[in-house]
Amino acid sequence: MLINIRTSEANKPIVQELTRRLNLGAENVVSRIAFSFSLSKNIKLDLEKDLLDSKGKEYKDDILFGKYRDYYIALICQHYGLYKTDKDIGKYIKMHIDHGLTIMNKIFEENKNYSGLDFLLENIETGIEKLEENEVSNDPIIYDEHTRKNRIVNKNYFAESIKLLVGKSFENEDIYFKLNDTSIHNNAHIAVAGNSGTGKTFFANSILKQVVKESKGQVNFIFLDFKGITEEDEKKNSEFFNATSCELIKAPYKPFPVNPLSFIDNINEKNKIMGINKFVDIITSYSNIGKNQQQTLKDATKDVFAGMKGGQYPSFKQIYEKVLEYEGDKASTLREILESLSELDLFETTVDLKNNFLNSNYYLSLSGDLPKSVRFTSVFLIINYIYNTFMNMDNAPIEGDYQGMRYVLLIDEAHTIFKEKKSQDLLEKILREIRSKGVSVILLSQGIEEFNQPSFDFSSMCETAFLFDIKDKTNLKMMQKFMGIGEKEATKLKTSMEKIQKYQLVSNLKEFKVGELFKA
C-alpha cells in the first residue's frame, strides 16, 4: 500500500516558510515534524470534519517517510486503534500533517522572535520528560478553554516603548536600555550580578521604578527577597515603595495575597492530579522528605481536594490536619514544614480567582528567621503560581517594534534559590516560555559561578546582563560566559573589571559599548 499525499492549499506556503524558519533541510522534514507535533497534542481528528483539500505540496511515499515508514504508520495505528492495512491510514497521516503545520505556523506567527531551535528544544524536552515516568514535569498546568475563561483574566499589556536610564558614561552621556524594543532585543530578561554594597539593589529598584513610570502603571512587579529586608533597608527603600505604590509584605507577619494551591485545576481530573503531583514535588524538593512521606502528602492532598465543594480550594492547615490523621502523633519532617506553612499564615486561605494581585506591586520579604526549607518552599510556590497563571493567558502581542509587557518578576539571591539542577531546569523553562506572555524576569545575584552551569547558560536565556564588582573578577572566561560576549570584547571587559569601583558596572547592552565601564 503506497501512501502518497498532498497537503492543503493553505498549507503549501506554510511548508515553505517553516522550512526556512526551522532550517533543517528539505520540506519533507518539516512535514514529519508537523505530523509528530500534531500527534503529541493527543487530539483525535475526524475524517469527515477535519480532512482538508489536497491542492498543496505533494509527497511521495518514500520521500515523506524515508526509511522510517513503519514507525509513522505504527504511530497512527496506535493513536486510532487501526490495523496497519487500514485503507484510511493515508488520510489520517495527511490530516495530522495539515493540523501540525497549522498549529506550528500559529506559534511562529504569534512569536516573531521564536526560532526553530527554541521550538525543537522545548518539544524534545517535553518528550524526554514524558519518558521519565518518575519525574514530575515542570510544564505549567494548562486549563481547558471553559476553565480558563472562568479562572484567568488576561492582564492588560503595555505595547509602547519602555526606555530605561541605566547609567551615565564617564563623559556624562546618558545610557538607555530599550527594554521591549524587539528590533534591538530578543527578550526582556535581565541578569544582574554584584557583591553586597556595590549598588546592585539600588540599580534594580531604579529599573522597576522606571518600568512603572514609563508604562503609566500598567506593568506591575513582584520583588522576591529571599534573605529578608532589614529595618535599615526598609527606611532606605521608602522612596521606592512610595514612588511605585509598592506594598511591602514581611513574612510571616502578613500573608501574601494568594493561595498558591489554587494553581491546581479542581475541575479537570487529569490536571488536578498533575497539579497535586507538582505541589508535592515542590514540598519534597526543599524539605528532604522521604518516599513514604511524599505518598502521605499526596494522598492527604487528594483527600482534602475531594472534600472541597463548589470549586473551593483548601488551605495548608486543612492539608496539615489530614496529614496528622494519616501519621498520628509521630514527629516527621513533613509535619514540621506543613505546620510552619499553616500556622505562620504565609499565604491567604481565600482564592483570588481573578488574579487581582497581578495588578499591584509587591515586595515580598521572607525573614531570615524562617526555616530555610519554608523560605525555599514559599518562593517556589509563588514562582510556580505566577508561571502557571501567565501561561494560561493569551500571548502579549508585538505592536510595531514593541513587545507588549505585563509584568516583571524580580528574584533576589537567585544564585541561592536556583542552585540545584532541578530548579535550574524550572528557571530555564520559565525564561524560555514566559517571555511571549509579556513577562520580564530579573535575576539578582552576588556572584556568577552558579549561573554558569553546563546545562544552563545565561548568555542565551537572559539577553541583557549587568555586572557590578564581584569577588572572582579575575576569571575572564566565566565573566564572558555570564555576559554572553566573545573574544573581541574580552580585553575591554578585563580592563574595566580591573578598574571597577562602587556604583560602577559593565554590560552587554546593544545600546552602549559592550564591556565598557560606566556609572550606575
From TrEMBL:
GO terms of molecular function: ATP binding; DNA binding
Classification via Pfam families: DndE, FtsK_SpoIIIE, HerA_C
Domain FtsK, first and last residues per copy: 161-229
Gene3D superfamilies from the UniProt entry: DNA sulphur modification protein DndE, P-loop containing nucleotide triphosphate hydrolases
SUPFAM superfamilies noted in UniProt: P-loop containing nucleoside triphosphate hydrolases
Origin: domain of life: Bacteria
Domain Helicase HerA-like C-terminal: 395-446
Name of the protein in question: DNA sulfur modification protein DndE
The species this protein was found in: Flavobacterium psychrolimnae
